[in-house]
Write a structure and sequence with these properties.
Blueprint (H helix, E strand, L loop, with lengths): L8 E3 L21 H10 L4 E5 H4 L8 H18 L2 E6 L18 H20 L4 E5 L4 E2 L7 H18 L4 E5 L8 E2 L4 H8 L8 E6 H6 L4 H10 L3 E6 L18 H13 L9 E3 L14 H19 L2 H9 L3 H13 L2
Parallel strand pairs: 1-2, 1-10, 2-3, 4-6, 6-8, 8-9, 9-10
Antiparallel strand pairs: 5-7
């Protein structure tokens, strides 16, 4: 048996937040990027996720040369810290121009803005040494179905992705599906939809998926099954591990916080498929509880990583031979108890 490969871990600047929510203001003082970068290394993380405007703040009000210069400056900070940029994503859902959607907006000017900003994101990614572009279709959907033509919306998404693929032949695009929020109904709500969409593009080999635990749960699906599905197609290019307490708003709880067994099964899938051996990162898209004090502002990240590594141990010490015997005997009751006792430990 080959030696188990190590994992590389990632989080984004937004994962150290100030605690604001739709019902109340920030409760912690903001921390500068340099402080967050220092915490990343202290916690044992090797990579950082970015939106385009995490790299270049106030991006819409800067010239192309300014944008690339600032991206280059951030690249130097990452290099000096020994950190890589895992992903770069265009943050299209904040702009007033995309209130009715970005790539699927009914306004052609908004669609043009979304594509142009996405192409700029690709250029930024190149400047920071990243080849993986993530598309979260946040406002690609409707509040009422009569407002848009669903088939035409899929065509618009394909057109946008094709434009990005042709802009830079070296990049890959990972679609991050989510069934709702902020839209009532989102287009491309699951990884199955995402991979079907990838096959409609001009270069399907360069279009894959990113799976987030909470988004699967919001769709009423099992995250480990969704991961297995994407892995079967060779298209699981990143994961956002967190947790979710039922079909509510996107909670981004620490990994394993709500359902430890589900977390175990996600880790087991990643282990079984040697996820990470091709350079993929394990990212934790988690937020601290709003009541968290500033001195504990990164504990949710440290705890998620710790839980993941403990579950790696559990996955590697799980008696697969005994489990196979119980499966062959169709003794699922005993298998169920075996998993529970393994997670409980001695």
């Amino acid at each position: 048996m080959s030696k188990p490969h190590p994992y590389r871990f990632s989080f984004g600047p937004w994962n150290i937040s100030e605690g604001a929510d739709p019902y109340g203001p920030a409760v912690r003082l903001p921390k500068p990027f340099d402080w967050k970068l220092a915490q990343l290394r202290k916690l044992g993380f090797e990579a950082m996720m970015f939106h385009d405007d995490d790299i270049v703040p106030d991006i819409d009000n800067k010239s192309a040369p300014q944008v690339l210069r600032e991206a280059g400056e951030l690249r130097k900070k990452l290099d000096d810290a020994g950190v890589i940029a895992e992903i770069v994503a265009p943050r299209l859902w904040f702009s007033p121009q995309t209130i009715d959607g970005a790539y699927t907006s009914n306004d052609p000017k908004a669609r043009k803005y979304a594509i142009n900003r996405s192409l700029q994101t690709i250029d930024i990614a190149g400047a920071v040494g990243c080849d993986l572009i993530v598309l979260w279709f946040a406002r690609e959907g409707t509040y009422l179905r009569e407002a848009k033509d669903g088939r035409r919306s899929v065509e618009l998404l394909v057109e946008a992705i094709n434009t990005m693929l042709m802009h830079d032949r070296k990049i890959r695009i990972a679609i991050e599906p989510k069934p709702n929020e902020p839209m009532d109904h989102a287009y491309i709500p699951t990884i199955g939809h995402a991979l079907a969409l990838s096959n409609l593009t001009c270069d399907p080999k360069r279009v894959g998926g990113l799976i987030e635990t909470a988004h699967c749960i919001l769709a009423g699906l099992d995250p480990s099954d969704e991961m297995d599905f994407a892995l079967s197609a060779g298209k699981l290019w990143s994961v956002h591990l967190n947790d979710q307490n039922g079909l509510k708003f996107d909670q981004d709880k620490p990994f394993g916080s709500a359902n430890l067994r589900s977390a175990f099964n996600q880790v087991r899938v990643l282990e079984r498929n040697q996820f990470g051996s091709r350079g993929e990162c394990v990212a934790f898209d988690v937020h601290s509880f709003r009541s968290t004090k500033i001195e504990h502002a990164v504990d949710h990240l440290a705890n998620s990583r710790k839980t993941f590594l403990r579950l790696v141990e559990k996955a590697r010490t799980f008696d697969e031979g005994k489990a196979g015997e119980l499966i062959a005997d169709r003794n699922y009751q005993a298998l169920d108890q075996m998993v529970i006792e393994h997670l409980l430990g001695s």
